[in-house]
Amino acid sequence: MTESKIFLIGVSGPSSSGKSTLARLLRYVLLKSFILHEDDFYKPETEIPVVNGIEDWDCPEAIDFMALRAAIDYIKKNRKLPDNVHYKEDQNNLGTPPVLSEEADEIKKQVLGENSVAENTEFCIVDGFLLFNDDVITKQLDIKFLLRAPYESLKKRREARSGYATIEGFWVDPPGYFENIVWPGYVKAHKHLFEGEDLEGPLAPYAIQQDIRTASAIDSHMKDMLKWALEVVAEKVRELSR
């Protein structure tokens, strides 16, 4: 492994599946790491598509993928976040952490041990709900996680949120937003990743070929998710460092 190598970990999945929580936990346990949030690459509000009179923040057309690709390229070359991006996503409150710091430390010790190569490796964790619908970004990532959860769980979590910080202000979901906008958009952008387009079924050959990983149990507890993710990270770092 060359000194300049940085590993890019993609954490994707539907809204409220635990992406940002897992990304922040990985940042906590992987000492030389930082997060790039796809949500910091939304287009201006005037360019967000409108569906039936409602802004659709959950479609590919709402994201500036050219800018996101450029940011990832910059990180690969410079091992740091670019300065020309307005970072606001960390302002969003994720609520009470489902995994305590002591629990995360114990999981790290179990999986990585005391002298793991991962301890001295740099990581950028890319957190986004639309990472694997873009072939360029999919190929830019070294480690790819796709989180899943049942429809009703996702809907309940999304509707419990107070809102989201945006570039121009603050967004609050209007009534029916999840079932009419969020979920149909997720299905449309991700159904090709699953056999028979069944989002609760096994991954399709294309997703397996791209080495996209999804946990064996849908909607695992975050402690189990962190342990699984760290095991994959350790495996991939060893593999890609040879």
Automatic annotation (TrEMBL):
Provenance organism: Lipomyces starkeyi NRRL Y-11557
Gene Ontology BP terms: NAD+ biosynthetic process via the salvage pathway; nicotinamide riboside metabolic process
Sample GO molecular function, one term: ribosylnicotinamide kinase activity
Name the record gives this protein: Phosphoribulokinase/uridine kinase domain-containing protein
PANTHER family: URIDINE KINASE
Cross-referenced InterPro entries: P-loop_NTPase (IPR027417)
